[in-house]
Amino acid sequence: MDLGIKGRTAIVCAASSGLGRACAKALAGEGVDVVINARTAETLEEAAAEIRAHAPDVTVTTVVGSVTEPDVREKLVRAAREVDILVNNAGGPPPGDYRDWDRDVWIAAIDQNLLAAVELIKLTADDMAARGFGRIVNITSSAVRVPIPVIGLSNATRAALTNFVFGLVPQYSGKGVTINNLLPGPFDTGRLRNSKDITKHLTGNAVAGRVGDPDEMGAMCAFLCSRHAGYLTGQNILMDGGLYPGSF
Ligand code: NAP
């Protein structure tokens, strides 16, 4: 299927590995120029090289730095010039016991997993609307549907982002701009491999018999950003291999 987005430009945040990298690769494979970001220059350049090899005809630009930094967000938007697609993503907050989290810990999580996305939407959505096309995808977590006890910081910040962005949907949906959230269950990435606590909660009842392949999420992201998904907005797309046990 031709996704109809060849020649568009996307910002994909936190894209040197895992789900962000897979989303950037899938978009580039559809002919989308990508501006990718992460804090570590070396791994970001490795990701850029992989994406260029996968999609030699697109432009891959790198912007190093944390999405929590205003100047990094502005650099991302400047590098893209016209932003047609915004994929908001960042590292997940650390697991732990809520009794150990002081204000600084909370603010860091809110900065990274709520405000960075809000600010990037603020920098891009109105211009998308003015041009009549835009796709915003926020990578959140299955924890929005089923909070996971050890990652309270994630449960809280992602639920807040979810409700915030859905409040924006009516403002933009008549203007060609869609806003959707991708909710990963267990996917085979560094985040999952490096946290036994998280793995235990995410895979304890796995019914799919496997964890997700990041490329499966990349493909879903590309479809959500496609011309065909213009009538699909304000949705939480849960990708968890059937782990969630309810109908709604
Ligand atoms: P990952 O493989 O660890 O990759 C995280 C990426 O984000 C890396 O490229 C990292 O590079 C970058 N990054 C981290 N913090 C950043 C920041 N502040 N600014 C810019 N880039 C940043 O993680 P993942 O599994 O793809 O997870 C992506 C998101 O999905 C996370 O929020 C995670 O909590 C969520 N999630 C994942 C799963 C799963 O099963 N994998 C399940 C539910 C939710 P640098 O470190 O160099 O910056």
Spatial arrangement of strands, main beta sheet: 3-2-1-4-5-6-7
Order of helices and strands: EHEHEHEHEHEHHHE
Q: Helix count, per DSSP?
A: 8
Shape: globular
Oligomer: single chain
Beta-sheet strand percentage?
5-15%
Largest sheet, in brief, is: 7 strands, parallel
Task: Report Rg.
Answer: 17 Å
Bound molecules: NADP nicotinamide-adenine-dinucleotide phosphate
Judged by helices, strands and strand pairing, the structural class is alpha/beta
Walk me through the structure.
The protein is α/β, with parallel strands linked by helices and 248 residues long. The chain has one domain (9-235): Rossmann fold, CATH 3.40.50. The protein is 45% helix and 15% strand. It is built from 8 helices and 7 strands; from the N terminus they run E-H-E-H-E-H-E-H-E-H-E-H-H-H-E. The chain has helices spanning 18-29, 41-54, 70-80, 103-131, 152-173, 190-193, 196-203, 214-224, and strands spanning 9-12, 33-38, 60-64, 85-88, 134-139, 177-184, 236-239. It has a 7-stranded parallel beta sheet with strand order 3-2-1-4-5-6-7, with helices on both faces. Helix 1 (18-29) runs parallel beside helix 2 and helix 3 packs parallel to helix 4 (103-131). The radius of gyration is 17 Å and the shape is globular. The two termini are 29 Å apart. Residues 13-20, 37-40, 43, 66-68, 89-92, 112, 139, 141-142, 184, 186-187, 189-192 line the site of NADP nicotinamide-adenine-dinucleotide phosphate.
